[in-house]
Amino acid sequence: MASSKLKITFLGTGTSTGIPMIGCKCEVCTSNNKKDKRLRSSILVESATTTIVVDTTPDFRYQMLRINNTKLDAVLFTHPHKDHIAGLDDVRAYNFFQKKPMDVYANALTAEALKREFAYVFADNKYPGIPQINLHIIDETPFVVGDVPVLPFTVWHHKMPVLGFRFENFTYITDANRIDEAVKEKIKGSDVIVLNALRNEQHISHFTLQQAIELVQELQIPEAYFTHISHQLGKHDDVEKTLPQGIHLGYDGLVLYV
Ligand SMILES: [Zn+2]
Ligand SMILES: [Zn+2]
Ligand SMILES: [Zn+2]
Q: Which CA distances in Å does 95 have to 11, 65, 71, 100?
């Protein structure tokens, strides 16, 4: 593995409802294990000089407070579902003390949703104090944020295109249930992958645990962490014990150096 260049922090590893889910009394939602408390899925990617968040979940503000984050250079969006974009308004804090607009990277579909769901941010006559956003519409062309090279690629969430991101030897994919063969070639060679694994039962738009395991093995990536986990998957420690070598469940607060 190349020398450690990036620090990856798992800000959230839960599916759209989070764990615990409101009102649920199941053994996962009532577990006392901290690893069974999952905010909505997001990671922070940090180099020596650059800090990037992938998605702004409904928990974004608390996720940043929880890790004492004080600097953010850019937001990368995977797709427009609410559990991935809802927290965008809270980039205002960074606008205030960094005194500049936030660079936001999204594909065309997500950009359209941001303009619709955060219309006030993009209005001609802006109310004072609203988020300042510098929106970059991206496709699968590689780009650089500060000193971090980013390779975006498209995976499928039922019929919705979702961006996955490769940062050198580290790949992050959430909310997928299908990956085209040509895109698998872009992912191969990663040392570490984060991949969504919702539960054991089939789902129309998410990989199951078994499908995620098979994909990691097919791609021959030596180290994998699963995210976007449902309370239906079971308790963290019980599931973790059943996984093949090199494959783990992610959990909130997990830090990797890649
Ligand atoms: Zn999601
Ligand atoms: Zn539950
Ligand atoms: Zn989604």
A: 21, 16, 10, 5
Give the model confidence (pLDDT) of 39-68 as tens digits. 999 999 999 999 999 999 999 999 999 999
Distance from C-alpha of 254 to C-alpha of 220, rounded to nearest angstrom: 22
Nearest partner of 152 among 1, 161, 221, 120, judged by Cα:
161
What's the Cα-to-Cα distance from 127 to each of 121, 123, 130, 133, 147, rounded to whole Å? 9, 9, 6, 14, 33
Measured CA to CA, the distance from residue 149 to residue 166 in angstroms comes to 8
Residue 113 C-alpha to ligand 1 middle, in angstroms?
15
Ligand 1 centre to CA of 223 (Å) is 22
175 CA distance to ligand 3 middle (Å): 5
Gap between the Cα atoms of 203 and 101, Å rounded? 38
Q: What whole-number distance in Å separates Cα of residue 31 and Cα of residue 209? A: 20
Structure tokens at 203: 């789902």
CA 15 to ligand 1 center in whole angstroms: 6
Category of 109 on φ-ψ map: left (φ > 0), alpha (ψ -120 to 50) or beta: alpha
Between the CA of 234 and the centroid of ligand 3 the distance, in Å, is 21
Kind of pairing, strands 223-227 and 143-145?
A: unpaired
Residue-wise pLDDT tens digits, 65-99:
999 999 999 999 999 999 999 999 999 999 999 99
